[in-house]
């Protein structure tokens, strides 16, 4: 991605900074990693190798996982099958209602290798209130109704548009009115457009129905996609268009950037133009801007997650879109996905980097998932003001804002729910708290840090249903239906005398308290996420989730006297 210096970026000095947005390393971007696609290809290859290794030992054989019913979360666990460790799920304020494996949901025309999961999205029929899920799988998409009692009804399956191959793991789904748009990394796949109203008249006794691409698609888009593949699809429903992103090859045409197509007539999507100015776009959110930056009110804005930057576009003219800003950040390894706080007043943005935990980069140096907080009140000069970190080791993946809650799908850590209501008053992220979770991958629970840094477990979740049901699509097992039991308030941070705090105020070391007070004064002044600036004595005493633990310990030190 091509990049000019960010005007608001500042050099890091000791441990005190105003924010952590940074200009990116041009040489590293253009010559070594990003523009060439080296990093993306490496991550894709890592994932495929990992999933094929799981397949080789039978972990992708989802038929081994039985249907599960309602299971209450009790004392931190939902034990769906008694005395079965692989059916004992860590949880908080969230109950299990149903589980169906991929083998049951998948096409009858493939073996179990085709029964892995990916993206998902939901649709509610506005007339009846009935709720439906589209669940991405290796060889297509399953259609599921969420019944009022919290059971899932398998209604049908739409096969992939082109023959399956190792890129079939990726199916991404987004809504437009009563349609679902389905893209894939498969060559020749394009974007399928399916009318969800087809599900309304399916009788349970006749389900599941096997749909066909020849008879059941409303439309299909492949124009402008050189190989017919994309990594993701994005929809601006208000402006009636969609975007294919992550288009390959990335060295032709629009360089893997934004490919716009109009949806005025979903049966005949029309290519509107493309933007390759910043090269490859992995994911994006495109919306009509409403917010404090008056210059852009009413403009069509895309927030692009472009491997090593947050890139903000004005795409009001699809044939002549403009880049408003391109901003990197500390720990940038693979900028993956994000979401704004409120479509009606866009001030904050929450973003994940998919490779920083694996690479142990920046604030993820200790292996705990990092969510980056961006102040986007100026689209021309966004500021990366803070972070918050997961409570178990792992990799964060996809996240969406529902009200003042953030729902994340974090691979082996499952679905995690964060209260982000404090961010306008405390943009450092120190006051954000995790209020609920359901860990769908017990296999890694006993590891140090409570999880593994690997691409296993949950891929996506959908939490926008009025009923409160949350669908979680996993890679290996199948689809889970869970529901929060209560909304817990964030508690004030308490001071417990653990080894971390003891190390900072150790009376046995002359001058240690004063040294810690001096360090903490700078460390907590605004926002610091660099593990390297933590003194060795503190890092050794706080070996897990270093930034979060040191920040908490710093807040518990007595105020220095003059």
UniProtKB/TrEMBL annotation:
Keywords recorded for this protein, A-Z: Signal
GO terms under cellular component: extracellular region
Highest taxon above the source species: Eukaryota
Matching InterPro entries: Choice_anch_B, WD40_repeat_dom_sf
Signal sequence coordinates: 1-19
NCBIfam families, sorted: choice_anch_B (TIGR04312)
Protein name from the UniProt record: Uncharacterized protein
Organism listed in the record: Colletotrichum zoysiae
